[in-house]
């Protein structure tokens, strides 16, 4: 059985109707006779969604117990045993309850797909892993539940469920998303119009990019060369002149007028030697186009208009922006120019904009190479001049008799002209035809092949020799100029390549994409293997052509050492291009090595951090754990001694010492275990709605009675937290505050509500902490100032902050007015979405 197909309904926010659309699709399929079951769908108390569940077969959920509570999860084994054609699995990014087979629900979906079951699922844009930073900058809170982008990208169908922010807020206000008592808080926080608009834009752009990928893949597979103007892509043709900045800015303004506009600036390195661009100016223009949100491309091409058009059509561009020619009027005798040629050959699908600028008709600012590899038109004109020119000249000289010496000079001039236009062979033809015509018509005896005067024989010989010499010099100059121009073009490409690598801006995939577009190939891949007989594996790939499993299967392969090769598909490259390709291949190997070295460095950094923690653990074991053990051992030994008759008071004191030592050991070991869980990322909070006044008193068990004053009103809103984690965090904060408070001064624990948050403040009157150390005290194994060794291993605050962040809360340190330190624990009120913005310090101060 083949792999199942995945269909995902993607939304920008809760409540847009993803689950409703999924269930409606399930009803449509069931009506068509498709075997469709509900594997897991959460209706969140929404009546309309719950109504759609009627009439669909539901696989019973699996019950799991966690921390004294029972939860229901997707029963993966039951769904696999049922083996339906289609399974509905809601909330793709959901984290499963500990004890489930997989940690994430998307992993359950992968198993269903592998079993050949089609899956329909839902996910919100804020749960995509790559958008975590962006969503955090919008909402202020990092999403705890995420799904890898690749899982969603691999979906066979992605359907956007869209709704305007105003319509979504109306739906919220009508009670169709949350319960009525939670509506006001949601509308004023997560469901603010700005938040919803930004998230909606993220969803639309992400789906648009995926659609663009599918379109490019389709065009490549079906070899569609015609431009489809699905979105505005504007190609800017750069020459390296100062007018390029004007063109880039004009193209950016054009792109802004259309939705999803894209700017692609391209410089074509000329191998015909016309103009050498300034690397400094190109670097400035590259920076400009990247600052404006576009991309810069460096392409090698002999025919500039053709290369530009090929690049535009390959990029599915809709417009080309070019500058008015800098050539002077008389230079147009050599051809219409790049702009006119591109406009003529662009066809009906490409709009060409010719933009005026300050450099128009001022001539080229850089020297022009006069010789180049001769094009077809010049060679044709050279042959016409070499063969037809002597005939026309003979007719003219027969009407005007100027003497043999002048006639020879005219024919010599014509031969030089043929050499300049067409190179060696047209010049040889001109010399041969000219010498025969000179002999026949102008050398006595005329109209005969023979030559009577030996001096005329010498003149004709000199004529032929000079003609051959001139033709040879012109041909050699053209070849050398072509070689110099090509080397210059190659050096420009390599300089850009080296600059990218030195700046560390080029990843392996970006470099391969640069190779592909530089040589106009369909795909580029870096292949490697471990040994001579080992199979090849792909280390990186770019392009949409067919995958290459061996270098021999590619159109072009460039070895890199013994066990690595750069493989390209699309066309066979000329031998002269392989020199640049070899440099690209060597650089690709360097980039791959650098990436692996970076990964090794990251692993080494992780190991070093682990070694640091282990060293600290050893130090803790050597003293902080051994001290209470020694005290317990001494007390037990004393009690068991038969040599001393202990009084009841002495026995009670020794037992109290044993109890205190055991409590201290329990506390230290608990913190060590908690820190280990945080370091390994295995802390999975069980979020429930609870009252703060139920948890905080339970955290006072480890401090002396009367050392803490509580001010926790019963009227506070409930908070969405893990009760066990909150109790541990509060216990560490309170114990730390009591430890540093002066004798006779109580620690104040006060709680208050602020917007959609609840703040718990632990206030002490101790020595306080300087501003530069307020963040450092939350690092593991940190003791502030001259705290004695017996004060603990320095994990309490680190564990407390880790637990707070695991519950989507925050923990910060502030100065206590009048002296001391205040720990501010901010918790999310019940009913507030996890993505709601946190309360800032300024808001807290304003509320107070």
From TrEMBL:
Its EC number is 2.7.13.3. It is a multi-pass membrane protein. One of its GO terms (molecular function) is kinase activity. PROSITE patterns: HIS_KIN (PS50109). It catalyses: ATP + protein L-histidine = ADP + protein N-phospho-L-histidine. CDD domains: HATPase, HisKA. Keywords: ATP-binding, Kinase, Membrane, Nucleotide-binding, Phosphoprotein, Transferase, Transmembrane, Transmembrane helix, Two-component regulatory system. The keyword Kinase applies. Residues 620-831 form the Histidine kinase domain. It is an enzyme of class 2 (transferase). InterPro entries: HATPase_C_sf, HATPase_dom, His_kinase_dom, HisK_dim/P_dom, HisK_dim/P_sf, Histidine_kinase_KdpD, KdpD_sf, KdpD_TM. It comes from the Bacteria. Gene3D superfamilies: 1.10.287.130, Backbone structure of the membrane domain of e. Coli histidine kinase receptor kdpd, Histidine kinase-like ATPase, C-terminal domain, HUPs, P-loop containing nucleotide triphosphate hydrolases. It is found in: Cell membrane; Membrane. SUPFAM superfamilies: Adenine nucleotide alpha hydrolases-like, ATPase domain of HSP90 chaperone/DNA topoisomerase II/histidine kinase, Homodimeric domain of signal transducing histidine kinase. The chain crosses the membrane at residues 380-397, 409-437, 457-478. This is histidine kinase. It comes from Streptomyces vinaceusdrappus. The lineage of its organism: Bacteria, Bacillati, Actinomycetota, Actinomycetes, Kitasatosporales.
């Amino acid at each position: 059985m083949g792999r199942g197909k995945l269909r995902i309904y993607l939304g920008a926010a809760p409540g847009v109707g993803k689950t409703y659309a999924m269930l409606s699709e399930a009803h449509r399929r069931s009506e068509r006779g498709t075997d469709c079951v509900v594997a897991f769908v959460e209706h969140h108390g929404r009546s309309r969604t719950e109504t759609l569940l009627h009439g669909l077969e539901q696989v019973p959920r699996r019950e799991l117990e966690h921390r004294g509570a029972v939860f229901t999860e997707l029963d993966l084994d039951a769904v696999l045993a049922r083996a339906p054609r289609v399974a509905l699995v809601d909330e793709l990014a959901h984290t499963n309850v500990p004890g489930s087979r997989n940690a994430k629900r998307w992993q359950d979906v992968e198993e269903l797909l592998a079993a050949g079951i089609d899956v329909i699922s839902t996910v919100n844009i804020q749960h995509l892993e790559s958008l975590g930073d962006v969503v955090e900058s919008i909402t202020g809170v990092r999403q705890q539940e995420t799904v890898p982008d690749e899982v969603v990208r691999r979906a066979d169908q992605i359907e956007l469920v869209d709704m305007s922010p105003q319509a979504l807020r109306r739906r919220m206000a009508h009670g169709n998303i949350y319960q009525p008592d939670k509506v006001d808080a949601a509308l004023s926080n997560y469901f603010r119009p700005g938040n919803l608009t930004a998230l909606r834009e993220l969803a639309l752009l992400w789906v648009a990019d995926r659609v663009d990928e599918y379109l490019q893949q389709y065009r490549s597979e079906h070899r569609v060369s015609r431009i489809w103007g699905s979105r505005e892509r504007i190609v800017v043709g750069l020459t390296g002149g100062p007018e390029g900045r004007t063109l880039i800015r004009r193209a950016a303004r054009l792109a802004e007028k259309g939705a999803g506009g894209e700017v692609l600036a391209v410089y074509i390195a000329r191998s015909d030697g016309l103009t050498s661009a300034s690397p400094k100016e190109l670097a400035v223009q590259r920076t400009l186009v990247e600052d404006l949100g576009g991309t810069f491309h460096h392409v090698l091409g002999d025919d500039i208009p053709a290369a530009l058009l090929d690049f535009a059509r390959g990029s599915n561009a809709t417009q080309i922006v070019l500058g008015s020619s800098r050539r002077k009027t008389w230079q147009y005798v050599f051809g219409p120019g790049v702009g006119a040629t591109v406009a003529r050959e662009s066809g009906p699908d490409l709009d060409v904009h010719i933009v005026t600028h300050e450099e128009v008709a001022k001539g080229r600012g850089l020297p022009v190479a006069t010789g180049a590899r001769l094009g077809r038109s010049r060679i044709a004109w050279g042959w016409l001049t070499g063969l037809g020119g002597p005939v026309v000249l003979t007719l003219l000289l027969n009407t005007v008799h100027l003497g043999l010496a002048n006639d020879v000079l005219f024919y010599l001039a014509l031969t030089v002209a043929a050499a300049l236009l067409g190179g060696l062979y047209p010049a040889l033809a001109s010399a041969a035809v000219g010498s025969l015509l000179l002999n026949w018509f102008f050398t006595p005896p005329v109209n005969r092949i023979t030559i009577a005067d030996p001096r005329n024989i010498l003149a004709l010989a000199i004529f032929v020799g000079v003609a051959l010499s001139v033709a040879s010099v012109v041909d050699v100059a053209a070849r050398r100029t072509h070689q110099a121009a090509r080397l210059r073009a190659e050096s420009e490409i390599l300089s850009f390549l080296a600059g990218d690598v030195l700046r560390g801006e080029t990843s392996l995939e970006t470099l391969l994409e640069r190779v592909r577009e530089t040589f106009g190939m369909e795909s580029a891949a870096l292949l490697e293997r471990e040994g001579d007989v080992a199979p090849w594996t792909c280390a990186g790939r770019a392009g949409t052509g067919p995958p290459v499993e061996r270098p021999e299967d590619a159109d072009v392969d460039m070895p890199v050492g013994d066990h690595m090769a750069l493989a390209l598909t699309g066309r066979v490259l000329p031998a002269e291009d392989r020199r640049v390709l070899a440099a690209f291949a060597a650089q690709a190997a360097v980039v791959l090595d650098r990436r692996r070295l970076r990964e090794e460095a990251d692993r080494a950094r992780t190991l070093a951090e682990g070694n640091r923690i282990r060293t600290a653990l050893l130090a803790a074991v050597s003293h902080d754990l051994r001290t209470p053990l020694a005290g317990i051992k001494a007390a037990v030994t004393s009690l068991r001694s038969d040599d001393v008759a202990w009084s009841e008071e002495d026995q009670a004191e020794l037992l109290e010492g044993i109890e205190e030592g055991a409590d201290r050991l329990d506390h230290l070991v608990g913190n060590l275990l908690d820190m280990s869980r945080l370091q390994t990322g295995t802390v999975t909070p069980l979020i429930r709605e609870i009252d703060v006044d139920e948890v905080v008193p339970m955290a006072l068990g480890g401090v002396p009675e009367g050392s803490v004053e509580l001010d926790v009103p019963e009227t506070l809103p409930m908070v969405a937290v893990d009760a066990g984690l909150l109790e541990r965090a509060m216990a560490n904060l309170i114990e730390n505050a009591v430890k540093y408070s002066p004798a006779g001064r109580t620690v104040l624990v006060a709680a208050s509500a602020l917007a959609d948050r609840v703040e718990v403040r632990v206030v002490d009157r101790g020595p306080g902490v300087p501003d530069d150390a307020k963040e450092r005290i939350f690092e593991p194994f940190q003791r502030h100032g001259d705290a004695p060794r017996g004060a603990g291993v320095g994990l309490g605050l680190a564990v407390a902050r880790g637990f707070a962040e695991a519950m989507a809360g925050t923990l910060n340190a502030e100065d206590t007015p009048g002296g001391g330190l205040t720990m501010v624990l901010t918790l999310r009120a019940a009913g507030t979405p996890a993505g709601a913005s946190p309360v800032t310090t300024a808001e807290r101060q304003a509320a107070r």
